[in-house]
Specification:
The chain is an alpha+beta fold. The chain is built from eight helices and eight strands, in the order αααβααβββββββααα.
Length: 267
């Protein structure tokens, strides 16, 4: 009834009123161009077209329906294996290679363009801009626009020294904060996601605070694109990203040895 609706509105309220994508069209073009370079024009076009048709329906009627069921903030996180065989600087710069740079090396592109993988592209904010975020793009079966804060830039969650606060208490080095605004219809979730290097032996960490209902369609891990399913998805993705980092820094032999060979066989 109305009481449930009012409670749900209070739950989503912190995620409403985000920057409009239409006011940052140049960001959208830059993110799309980088994704075309990564995935190819035909594959990108099909995923991009699906974004306009599927994402709003999933976001407003399945994962975050304020009319049906009680909404809450679901916390899920994924933590990878230790990466203390590398320096913190080595791990950090590979985030930029994989995610922020529009162009990549030929070897990296073979990994990034693997159709089995999730592929994000979060360009840097414009150099002369005072904005703390830029619009990025995620690509899997469907594409999705996101608002990304790079922790090297001053954000709305900054202290008096201009240093951005990280929501994760176990992060040694925060890299990105992705805000999935309620008024962004082109992403299937509402909430906040961070990508960090953990204090625990430099493992990769990916905490998520997502708006979710308690019904089967919204939260069951066996339902594709539910908030439960995305937890499992990134549990499977993080070992691939760890392989990519070691491949760049230590070579294929070392990467295969740490991964047991099963991941390297896919590339």
């Amino acid at each position: 009834g109305w009481s449930r609706y009012k409670r749900n509105i209070e739950v989503i309220k912190p995620f409403c009123g985000g920057p409009s994508l239409y006011n940052h069209f140049s960001d959208c073009v830059a993110a799309a161009a980088g994704m075309v370079y990564r995935r190819g024009l035909m594959e990108f076009t099909s995923a991009f077209a699906l974004m306009f048709v599927i994402n709003p329906w999933i976001k407003y009627w399945i994962t975050g329906n304020v009319y049906m069921g009680d909404l809450g903030i679901r916390y899920v996180t994924q933590v990878g294996r230790p990466m203390d065989d590398l320096t913190l600087k080595q791990v950090k710069r590979n985030f930029k290679r994989y995610i922020s740079r529009a162009k990549t090396t030929r070897e990296s592109k073979l990994f990034i363009c693997n159709p089995l993988l999730f592929c994000p592209h979060f360009p840097y904010p414009p150099r002369r801009s005072k904005r703390y975020f830029s619009v990025g793009l995620e690509h899997s079966t469907i594409a999705a626009f996101v608002h990304t804060t790079h922790f090297k830039s001053k954000s709305s969650l900054s202290d008096e020294r201009g240093k951005s606060h990280c929501l994760s208490r176990s992060a040694e080095e925060p890299i990105y904060r992705v805000i999935l605004w309620r008024n962004n219809p082109y992403h299937i979730y509402t909430g906040i996601v961070e990508a960090c290097i953990s204090k625990k032996r430099q493992s990769l960490e990916h905490p998520m605070w997502l708006i979710s209902s308690r019904n089967k369609l919204s939260s069951d891990p066996n339902v594709i694109l539910s908030t439960g399913w995305i937890d499992v998805f990134f549990d499977q993705f993080i070992p691939h990203f760890e392989y990519f980092i070691r491949l760049n820094e230590l070579g294929r032999e070392a990467a295969d040895a740490m991964a047991g060979g099963s991941i390297g066989d896919q590339f």
